[in-house]
Specification:
This protein is α+β, with helices and mostly antiparallel strands. About 35% of the residues lie in helices and about 25% in strands. It has a five-stranded mixed beta sheet with strand order 3-2-1-5-4. A hairpin with a 4-residue loop joins strand 1 (about 30-35) and strand 2 (about 40-45).
Amino acid sequence: MARTALVNLDIEGARKLIEALDKAGFPVGSAFWFYNPDSEEWRLFISSPEVDKKGPLRAYKTIQPVLKQLPEVTFGIDNIAAVGTKAPLVSLMRSAIKTGPGTSGIRLTRNVINGTLIEDAYVYRLQQDQGRASRSSRQ
């Protein structure tokens, strides 16, 4: 099902998921909603060094039970993209924005980054050194 609008419920649900993943010890280096105008869908990108080390399937197996513990979250695992730290979209977004280890709230609408149009995105976290940054967020 296409989700053409990112609503406050999704924004807050993703924030709660990121915070729950931090608490569970899953290193989230970057996290942001990204709108794909071709498919007219929003996807929550979660970038982690764990994906680089163990692959996306293992990351989904970690994210899914945490997601299920959050009944107020209205989106499912099919709305999440678990990617590595060097994923092209993550690298592109990090080239323009860097945040601290918490959960920011930065909206990008119709911005161009290095010649690529970002139709719409909502950024929680974009960290350069994801492994070190995500460890410090749990301290």
